[in-house]
Write a structure and sequence with these properties.
The chain is mainly α and 142 residues long. Helices cover 96% and strands 0% of the residues. Pfam families: CCDC90-like.
Length: 142
């Protein structure tokens, strides 16, 4: 019977743990868990700082790109104003040249008309002179 009880006690003690061993086991587990939490926290902090640095770097890059775009846009607007001014100047010059050509054409037409009237007048005068001379010759001959 003693032997059976000893076997039962050994068998039962195999499945149960002493309180001291359990406390040591709990402290070990808590220590491991604490280390794991510390490592996770450290890793998260490191990752967060990396993300913050990357975010700042991207913000700086975006600001640089925005400034460059603003600068390029201002250059394009300036070039557009310059081209518009140049086109307006060319348009004004074209208008002035057109007006000058119109005035010169009208002046030439007036000169041609005056010359035509002078030619007609001289022709009529010449015909009248020839007719008068012809009549004078006829009168003399008659």
């Amino acid at each position: 019977m003693t032997e059976v009880l000893n076997d039962s006690l050994d068998n039962a003690s195999f499945w149960f743990v002493f309180k001291g061993e359990m406390q040591i086991n709990e402290m070990t587990q808590e220590s491991i868990l604490s280390k794991f939490k510390t490592e996770v926290k450290s890793s998260q902090d490191n990752h967060l700082s990396l993300l913050q640095r990357e975010t700042e770097k991207l913000k700086v890059d975006i600001e640089k790109m925005m400034e460059k775009l603003k600068s390029d846009l201002e250059k394009m607007r300036s070039e557009l104003r310059r081209i518009r001014d140049e086109l307006n100047d060319q348009n004004q010059e074209t208008t002035n040249l057109t007006n000058k050509l119109d005035r010169e054409i009208h002046a030439l037409r007036a000169q041609i008309e005056a010359a035509k009237y002078d030619v007609i007048k001289y022709c009529i005068d010449s015909l009248a002179s020839v007719a008068a001379d012809g009549l004078a010759v006829i009168r003399i001959l008659m």
